[in-house]
């Protein structure tokens, strides 16, 4: 089956930069009293520079002012993904989706993240929901076409056709449709649509490079190498930062035995890790074809070394992933000691696998080994300070150790990183209740019902704080409201009964 460019419209798909151009950096810093809008701009600026830790700090400050901002959540999730905190990104998106379940941008990002997490069915489900909620949005249908094309599904044709019905003049959709026909071995129809797409594309003030690139890939697959160069050249002219454009052109140049130009394009791909081995292999073939023995030997040795390192790295990564998967299954089933042992073994062999510190911290906390759990969470946070979940669970451990001020600091950090995290607010409130600062706890808890997924525990804790703050009537009102929603809630019933006899049983654990 031919391989074509499958450039998606989704937010997680980012172009691979070629070494040809390096963007000039600009200052992103803002003052301590900057307005939230400036914080958002700063977060975007840092993200463009790849400074993800500072970007995470700035977007957190923005979201404290606008916790339910969809744009803020999307940028926050993207930053967390770049920080390799995919589980945190997933949680951030799910909390926002609880508020805006029909938001197409959120669902699209969630679909992309689901693909990244190896859950293609969930990804497809979210994209189909997007097509249901926004049936007249052509980009939604094109993204669905991209997804099906990437997964070899013939339904890709229908996705692009629907997109073109809604926006007939978009050459990107035509190129996608042409690619889907080519994959289904309808080459003549594919070529006709491609020719229409590139003509339309060139009439735009700013042509889409992906249109030329997809056509160039099609032509190369049809062994029309000379013709393909025209469209690779156009794609590179329109976007000179895409290493896959240079790589495709190098393949056509090799077929045409234009060795010098092929060598130049292959070298342009060496700094892109996703293309490095393939580019080295091209250079080896180029020198072999020209009987340049010394250069061929040099690149053969480099390729062998890099391949061995890559294979070893992938083997190691696969083993780590398998071990972590086994540990998570054990942890999920409540076998905490066994899971902790697996995490420990991973760390002994692969100390760089910091995700194991997080898992170990969770297991040890469930086993009651609070000191070692604290150590594990702090190890994880030393390399992943932007994780709201890790701050939350470290706070819970510290609260159990009665280190109230330290616990509150972690809960506050979790809340600042994700203002919609209800458990962080419960932790803050619990820390104040422990100190007898009931009015402050009440203020924190009264904001919790406005957040997505607010648990009944928040209301029970609020009732406790109200009672201890000498407001029994308000405490009873809260408990009665809980029982109206959930008549079978035994804890609320017991607390209500206790209110008539004395203090309710403590929820601030």
How much is the average pLDDT? 89
Low-confidence segments, given as residue ranges, are 1-24
- Quaternary state of this entry equals single chain
Q: Percent of residues in helical segments? A: over 70%
Q: If helices are DSSP runs of H or I spanning 4 or more residues, what is the number of helices?
A: 26
Shape: globular
Give me the CATH fold name of the domain at 385-509. Answer: Serine Threonine Protein Phosphatase 5, Tetratricopeptide repeat
Under the CATH scheme, which architecture of the domain at 385-509 would be assigned? Alpha Horseshoe
Task: Count the beta strands.
Answer: 0
Main beta sheet, described? none
Question: CATH homologous superfamily of the domain at 385-509, by name?
Answer: Tetratricopeptide repeat domain
Elements, N to C (H/E): HHHHHHHHHHHHHHHHHHHHHHHHHH
- Mind telling me the CATH class of the domain at 385-509? Mainly Alpha
Strand content: under 5%
Mind telling me the C-alpha Rg? Answer: 28 Å
> Which class do the helix and strand fractions yield?
mainly alpha
Describe this structure in words.
- This protein is mostly helical.
- Helices cover 72% and strands 0% of the residues.
- α22 runs parallel beside α24.
Concise summary:
With 509 residues, the protein is mainly alpha-helical. The protein has helices at 36-49, 52-65, 70-82, 86-99, 104-116, 120-133, 138-150, 156-166, 171-183, 187-202, 209-221, 225-238, 243-255, 259-268, 276-289, 293-332, 336-349, 355-367, 370-383, 388-400, 404-417, 422-434, 438-446, 456-468, 472-485, 490-499. It has 26 helices and no strands.
């Amino acid at each position: 089956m031919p391989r074509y460019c499958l450039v998606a419209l989704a937010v997680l798909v980012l172009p691979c930069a070629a070494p040809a151009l390096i963007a000039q950096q600009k200052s992103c810093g803002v003052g301590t009293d900057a307005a939230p809008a400036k914080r958002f701009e700063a977060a975007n600026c840092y993200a463009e520079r790849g400074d993800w830790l500072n970007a995470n700090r700035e977007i957190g400050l923005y979201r404290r002012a606008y916790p339910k901002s969809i744009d803020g959540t999307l940028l926050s999730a993207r930053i967390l993904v770049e920080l390799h905190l995919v589980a945190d990104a997933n949680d951030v998106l799910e909390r926002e989706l609880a508020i805006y379940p029909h938001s197409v941008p959120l669902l699209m990002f969630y679909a992309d993240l689901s693909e990244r997490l190896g859950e293609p069915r969930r990804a497809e489900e979210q994209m189909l929901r997007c097509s249901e909620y926004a049936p007249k949005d052509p980009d939604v249908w094109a993204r669905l076409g991209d997804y099906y094309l990437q997964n070899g599904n013939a339904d890709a044709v229908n996705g692009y056709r629907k997109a073109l019905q809604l926006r007939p003049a978009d050459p990107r959709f035509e190129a996608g449709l042409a690619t889907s026909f080519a994959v289904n071995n309808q080459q003549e129809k594919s070529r006709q649509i491609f020719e229409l797409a590139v003509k339309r594309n060139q009439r735009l003030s700013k042509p889409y490079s992906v249109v030329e690139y997809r056509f160039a890939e099609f032509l190369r697959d049809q062994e029309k190498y000379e013709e393909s160069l025209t469209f690779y050249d156009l794609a590179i002219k329109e976007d000179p930062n895409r290493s896959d454009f240079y790589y495709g052109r190098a393949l056509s140049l090799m077929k045409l035995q234009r060795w010098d130009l092929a060598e130049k394009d292959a070298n342009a791909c060496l700094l892109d890790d996703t293309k490095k081995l393939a580019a080295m292999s091209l250079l080896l073939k180029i020198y072999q074809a020209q009987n340049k023995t010394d250069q061929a030997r040099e690149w053969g040795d480099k390729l062998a070394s890099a391949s061995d390192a890559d294979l070893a790295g992938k083997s190691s990564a696969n083993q780590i992933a398998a071990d972590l998967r086994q540990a998570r299954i054990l942890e999920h089933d409540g076998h905490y000691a066994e899971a902790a042992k697996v995490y420990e073994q991973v760390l002994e062999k692969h100390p760089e696998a910091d995700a194991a510190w997080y898992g170990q911290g969770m297991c040890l906390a469930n086993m009651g080994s609070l000191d070692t759990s604290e150590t594990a969470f702090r190890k994880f946070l030393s390399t992943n300070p932007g994780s709201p979940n890790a701050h939350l669970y470290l706070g819970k451990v510290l609260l159990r150790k009665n280190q109230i001020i330290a616990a509150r600091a972690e809960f506050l950090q979790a809340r600042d990183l994700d203002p919609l995290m209800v458990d962080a607010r419960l932790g803050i409130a619990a820390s104040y209740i422990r100190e007898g600062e009931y009015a402050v706890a009440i203020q924190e808890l009264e904001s919790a019902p406005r957040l997505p997924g607010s648990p009944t525990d928040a209301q029970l804790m609020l009732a406790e704080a109200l009672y201890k703050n000498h407001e029994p009537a308000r405490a009873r009102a809260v408990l009665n409201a809980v029982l109206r929603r959930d008549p079978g809630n035994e804890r609320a019933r017991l607390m209500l009964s206790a209110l008539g006899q004395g203090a309710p049983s403590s929820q601030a654990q």
